[in-house]
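re: the backbone from monday

yeah here it is again, tokenized this time
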């Protein structure tokens, strides 16, 4: 088995950060939270960066912050060491010492010393942008490697509990084998399909844990009360093969005996959460793409373990690509931001096919607005992610927006502007609720942007060809309503519905220009540019001296102009270079203690829109945005999975640089906006 590539080019390119208190090397930095197993909205396990020093006794966490039982324990010459996730250690065990932590775009790796040997725990969540089979498999890898050293006997143990089912008080389990692969499956009893608990965990499906002997290990298994199963390993270094009835807090455990050796040895586990009924799309069931080939859970996880070497090779190539896309463009700090963003974006997205036909020609993708309100395929969330897809997998833009177009073509939707979302509560894509958010100009502009981004990056016109009639309707709405917007919400929905929002006027102007490119109609491009002149040159949306954009026509305060990005990306010239030069000069003058706010009335900013703004400015302003986001993720104040919303100045109980409410949202694709200016569909591995 190939040794996991835990230390990619990103880590090598950046200088290491060392914690003086714990003696831990963090490479390239200590983030708010490390992705451990992040493959879907329901397989989303993390460890806060501030918990790494106590990794042996700190639980993994679901994205919402609730504990997940997932442990790694090792015996070295008969002495037992807790390496990871043992919050309540058994008697006669010691805690290992963490010496290093690193992350790349696909791996989070920790080095733990235990007695005479050193262990590496490599948490590997594949990201396979153009291989739908690999990307859709709802599993992640954990490889535990014992480094070469003095000859010792070594055994490695790992377990999980029903905490992964979302219904930990009432579950059941089964054990099975497929060849040499040993598989535990844990299911919630009385499963409630398409529903979640208060933490956002799925209340249906199966938690899966699997492993197989390596070339140097023998494998034993056991399930039962946590203290009992772990005690068995502590005392004997092996498990009994007994499977007690499930009880709350019980675990399913594996033990690998590596014998007495001085050589490097490794064992790999696969962890997953499987839902055969994945998405309710307009009353029909969608399932994971992989099920066209591996319909059974056991077959799927067995293949996943078989695929390790190929997946790991691909991940090494992707790590290098992300590193180069960042550091070659704007330095190592930018690479660090991109690498921490990748798994969070793809881990909020699922690739599906119809459950009844398993027809891979009908592939779709669904994205969850994690932690903010749980909507499904929110159009502005897709807009916030699209730069990463533009670079790595433009087909994902099509897969995500197609279900939106399909819904808007039904009798259930009759508006002449684009919808905000196709369901209030993921995974129920059952249609937009009348009480839900409506952003007519915002989303109409977004569907035009997304369609054109897909077309430019892929070279295909099929999305426009299929939905040209709808797109014309939304362009017409912008033409009739966009220059002087009525009171309505924008992406800055915290402000409520405001009339004459400059942000919306900008979106409408650029949206019309984009539609002109799609429809090959220069009149729309001309109108978009005319509106751009009115908003900027004629000061409709600026201060009298033309130094800044205002939040509303003629009304202060200023706001962050993130809707300029498609104008720059597609070279439309809707706004003159003077506008971009002015914002480059202006933003540094309104920077607060930890960054630039979303607008002049707020104490908080959002990294997703800062990422878009960074791609529209130059020089010191661009470097400021990169530095501020990098400082925010490395300041040690936060523990949530990369929150895109944080305080740029102290406010109430929050210090400057602290995150605010959002967790693990997939909107971080916008961090790739700068890279997208020079990288289009650069990923070729499959």
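seq for it, each position gets an aa:
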């Amino acid at each position: 088995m190939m040794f996991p590539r835990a230390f990619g080019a990103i880590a090598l390119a950046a200088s290491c950060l060392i914690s003086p208190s714990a003696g831990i090397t963090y490479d390239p930095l200590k983030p708010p939270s490390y992705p451990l197993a992040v493959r879907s909205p329901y397989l989303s396990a993390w460890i806060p960066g501030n918990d790494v020093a106590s990794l042996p006794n700190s639980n993994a966490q679901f994205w919402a912050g609730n504990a997940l039982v997932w442990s790694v324990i090792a015996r070295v010459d008969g002495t037992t060491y807790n390496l990871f996730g043992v919050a309540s250690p058994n008697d006669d065990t010691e805690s290992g010492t963490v010496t290093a932590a690193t992350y790349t775009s696909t791996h989070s790796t920790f080095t733990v010393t235990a007695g005479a040997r050193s262990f590496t725990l490599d948490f590997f969540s594949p990201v396979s942008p153009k291989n739908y089979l690999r990307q859709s498999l709802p599993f992640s890898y954990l490889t535990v490697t014992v480094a070469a050293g003095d000859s010792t006997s070594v055994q490695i143990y790992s377990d999980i509990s029903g905490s992964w089912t979302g219904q930990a008080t009432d579950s059941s389990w089964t054990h099975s084998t497929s060849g040499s692969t040993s598989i535990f499956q844990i299911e919630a009893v009385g499963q409630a399909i398409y529903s979640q608990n208060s933490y956002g965990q799925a209340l249906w499906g199966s938690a899966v844990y699997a492993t197989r002997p390596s070339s140097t290990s023998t494998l034993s298994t056991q399930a039962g009360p946590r203290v009992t199963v772990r005690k068995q390993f502590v005392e004997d270094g092996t498990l009994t093969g007994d499977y007690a009835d499930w009880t709350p807090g019980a675990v399913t455990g594996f033990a690998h005996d590596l014998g007495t050796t001085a050589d490097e040895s490794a064992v790999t586990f696969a962890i997953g959460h499987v839902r055969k009924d994945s998405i309710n799309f307009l009353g029909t069931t969608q399932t994971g793409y992989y099920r066209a080939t591996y319909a059974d859970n056991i077959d799927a996880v067995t293949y996943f373990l078989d695929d390790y070497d190929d997946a790991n090779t691909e991940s090494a190539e992707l790590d290098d690509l992300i590193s180069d896309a960042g550091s070659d463009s704007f330095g190592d700090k930018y690479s660090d931001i991109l690498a921490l963003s990748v798994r969070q974006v793809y881990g909020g997205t699922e690739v599906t096919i119809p459950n009844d036909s398993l027809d891979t020609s009908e592939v779709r993708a669904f994205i969850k607005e994690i932690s903010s309100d749980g909507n499904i395929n929110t159009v502005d969330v897709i807009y916030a992610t699209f730069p990463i897809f533009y670079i790595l997998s433009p087909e994902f833009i099509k897969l995500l927006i197609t279900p939106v177009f399909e819904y808007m073509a039904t009798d259930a939707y009759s508006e002449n502007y684009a919808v905000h979302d196709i369901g209030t509560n993921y995974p129920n894509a059952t249609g937009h609720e009348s009480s839900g958010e409506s952003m007519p100009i915002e989303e109409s502009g977004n569907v035009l942007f997304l369609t054109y981004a897909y077309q430019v990056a892929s070279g295909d016109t099929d999305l426009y060809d299929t939905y040209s009639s709808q797109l014309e309707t939304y362009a017409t709405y912008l033409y009739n309503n966009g220059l002087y917007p009525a009171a309505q919400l924008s992406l800055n929905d915290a402000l409520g519905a405001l009339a004459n929002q400059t942000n919306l006027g900008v979106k409408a102007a650029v949206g019309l220009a984009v539609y002109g490119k799609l429809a090959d109609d220069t009149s729309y491009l001309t109108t978009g540019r005319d509106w751009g002149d009115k908003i900027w040159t004629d000061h409709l949306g600026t201060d009298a001296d033309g130094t800044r954009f205002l939040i509303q026509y003629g009304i202060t305060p200023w706001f962050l102009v993130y809707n300029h990005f498609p104008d720059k990306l597609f070279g439309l010239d809707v706004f003159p270079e003077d506008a971009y030069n002015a914002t480059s000069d202006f933003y540094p003058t309104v920077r607060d203690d930890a960054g630039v706010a979303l607008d002049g009335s707020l104490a908080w900013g959002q990294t997703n829109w800062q990422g878009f703004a960074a791609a529209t400015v130059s020089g010191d302003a661009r470097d400021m945005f990169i530095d501020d986001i990098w400082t925010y993720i490395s300041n040690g104040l936060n523990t949530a999975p990369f929150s895109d919303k944080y305080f740029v100045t102290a406010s109430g109980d929050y210090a400057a640089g602290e995150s605010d409410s959002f967790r693990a949202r997939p909107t971080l694709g916008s961090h790739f906006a700068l890279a997208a200016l020079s990288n289009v569909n650069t990923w070729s591995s499959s």
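The CA atoms of residues 286 and 446 lie 25 Å apart. The chain has two domains: 9-13+24-278+285-314, 363-676.
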